[in-house]
Design a protein that fits this description.
Blueprint lengths: L4 E5 L4 H10 L11 E7 L1 E11 L2 E9 L8 H10 L6 E5 L4 H5 L4 E2 L5 H10 L6 E5 L11 H8 L12
Parallel strand pairs: 4-5
Antiparallel strand pairs: 1-2, 2-3, 3-4, 5-7, 6-7
């Protein structure tokens, strides 16, 4: 099985994410403003969108292909997408997924930006959803190192650091 690769999907490749959603028979689609993140094993096996909202982002449209579930793909994709985030990230989830997201630094949210509060109220008319937030201060302060990226992507990097002396 090919190594899992996690990356931001450039805007011109957005149709690939939409094709993934359709192939999974999901109504999810990415909007123009979304920052798309994907996990790939040759082909896309998971995707999520970070949509700018208020003073942060709304994590939406997280989907992992059924054959890839329960392997840590969603966790890795969320962690990579939120690495270095300097603003809060909100999401809505079914109550049974709350523990999963809390292990990733999210907590129950009692105050949402107006745009999200309206959307949540609309969604809650037909389904049970919770609002969670991951504050900016819970985010890593620096981006992953070259070694972390290499370990996560399976890429071997060779670099030398010159120390003046």
């Amino acid at each position: 099985m090919p190594e899992l690769q996690l990356r931001a999907l450039p805007a011109p490749l957005k149709p690939l994410a939409d094709r993934f959603y359709r192939a999974q028979r999901s109504p999810m689609r990415a909007s123009q403003a979304d920052q798309l993140w994907v996990a790939q094993r040759g082909e896309i096996v998971a995707a999520l969108c970070l949509r700018p909202v208020a003073e942060g982002h709304w994590l939406t449209s997280l989907l992992v292909a059924p054959a890839q579930r329960r392997q840590g793909v969603a966790r890795q994709l969320i962690e990579r997408a939120l690495t270095g985030a300097n603003a809060p990230t909100w999401l809505f989830c079914h109550p049974q997924l709350s523990d999963f997201y809390q292990r990733l630094g999210f907590s129950p949210c009692t105050s949402l930006p107006a745009q999200l509060a309206e959307r949540l109220a609309r969604y809650q008319r037909t389904k049970s959803l919770l609002a969670l937030v991951r504050p900016a201060e819970d985010m890593p302060e620096k981006p992953p190192s070259a070694r972390q990226i290499a370990a996560d992507t399976g890429t071997l990097l060779d670099f030398t650091v010159a120390i003046p002396g």
